[in-house]
Amino acid sequence: MKYGTNSKFKDMDYKLDYMERLFAKISKKKTESYVISRIWHQLDDDRVKFVVQQYIRRTQDKYALADLYLPQLNIFIEINEPFHKNNTEIDKIRNEEILNITNSKPIIIDCDNNIQEIHHQITDVVSLIKQCIQEMGDNFQPWDDVSTLSVEYHRNKGYLKVDDNECLRTTDDVAETFGTKPKHRGFLRASGAAVPNKKNEIIWWPNTEHRLWCNELSEDGMFIYEYPKAENKRTAHLKQWLSAPEETRITFLRYKDDLGFCFYRFVGVFNLNKEKSIKENKCVWERVSNTYQLNV
């Protein structure tokens, strides 16, 4: 989806699209949808970003999904429907784990009540949110995804950093950030472009959902495994790269978020690890830096 040229309207259109998708996602959860909708409208502050079903890793093999998360304030809100009465002890352990991991104690809205009591709890939550914003003062960063997704933002910043969750919307935007354009092969696009005036540096935007290729990022973000899905082509592909000149890949991985928005996220600077590649019979790209200095 494209947004208008005026930056203010671009921001508002994106936020409208975002919130429409958010409420569509939770529409089948009637109580949760009602409570979150009332919080959003009663707060009436589109500077605050809402994230639903926020993934939180509790242990190595367990995770939780927070009903509502406000990332700028590090506030988690749990909406307990009546069936939670049977899970009191489990919920307590879960919330303690979330507190230990995030340093934020989940706020509970107990919906095993009449509507007046639920409204009262929501009013208290909204008051708390407003108080947190006020206490943060100038440290509060308004929700502004449109600006941070722009080429101009990244160029002005001057560098890319994995921990900053750097994202762009299209491969055209990724290439333009480096002062170049993606190459086309008919209606197809190449999976990368050379960095201008940088020998053996490539901007790479692998597709994790490619029909013919696998591009897998390891859970710790340190390796990308690149190989053809057809097993009989893997050895030749690996041989080609083992004999090729050394190449550094500034990498943006294509992914789709929970609301269906597609992004290209900077995941680091990678070089081919030949030893691991030979061992696994596939190209194994190892992250050598989590930052990259732009020169545009």
From TrEMBL:
Residues 16-129 form the Restriction endonuclease PvuRts1 I-like N-terminal domain. It comes from the Bacteria. Residues 156-294 form the PvuRts1 I-like SET and RING associated domain. InterPro entries: PvuRts1I-like_N, PvuRts1I-like_SRA. This is Uncharacterized protein. It comes from Paraprevotella xylaniphila YIT 11841.
